[in-house]
Amino acid sequence: MKIATYNVNGISxxxxxxxxxxxxxxxDVACLQELKAPQEKFPEQAILDAGYEAVWQGQKSWNGVAxxxxxxxxxxxxxxxxxxxxxxxxxxxxxxxxxxxxxxxxLPNGNxxxxxxxxxxxxxxxxxxQHAATLIQSGExxxxxxxxxxxxxxxxxxKPERWVEDALFRPESREAFQQLLAQGWTDxxxxxxxxxxxxTYWDYFRNAFGRNAGIRIDHLLLSPALxxxxxxxxxxxxxxxxxxxxxxGPVWITVADGQ
Length: 259
Known about the structure:
This protein is of the alpha+beta class. It has a single domain (2-255), classed as Endonuclease/exonuclease/phosphatase (Deoxyribonuclease I, Chain A, 4-Layer Sandwich), CATH 3.60.10. The strands form 2 sheets. The protein has a 6-stranded mixed sheet. It has a 6-stranded mixed sheet with strand order 5-6-7-8-10-9. A hairpin with a 7-residue loop joins strand 3 (53-57) and strand 4. 25% of the residues lie in helices and 25% in strands. The chain has helices at residues 11-25, 44-49, 116-138, 171-183, 188-192, 237-240; strands spanning 2-7, 29-33, 53-57, 65-69, 75-79, 92-97, 100-106, 141-147, 186-187, 218-222, 230-235, 251-255.
């Protein structure tokens, strides 16, 4: 099974790019972030015509997450994180696809630092940690896929010194990511490519994509029950090179069936 995550940065304006990617890359499951569209404006028919069924949680102008599947309709498990019901931002949904639990997340950016937005990021991550631990304890096959808005290490940024005061690279953010891994989650791309330069986001400015001046903030974390099935991973850079595209590239993994 091929599972992907893609921050589309506005599904309405990026729909042609999204549909072309789905046709060319043919992921079995695709987690989308930053829909930037209310619930009723999700292009369900276009997605169906492309061969995918979907569940989603929209939000006007901001945020929004979706899970697409071409191997059976995703069965929605939850919207939002347990214990965080007061949060009105659409940042997390979870669905079952075949025998895999798929969590799709858009973790808060957190800038500027210091400030309420960074405090919100850290609070959100505390709830996420608690839920992630519960998923580990379930023993199920789980993938937590999305835009984490965290640069895990210096190796994940073109010039890490430029990010030291940014919420994506603050010590608190990186430590929170390491705490997730310490629960038993596997960082799929780094497991397969421990030394390679891998980026998933390139700014629109200063020819960042042309210079490959990027950062790695889109991740697929695998539970201990699923990690042994990991067979491949990559970033679809060709999508970032398309016209009117997102500033993120789709990230994908393949896992063996029946493992």
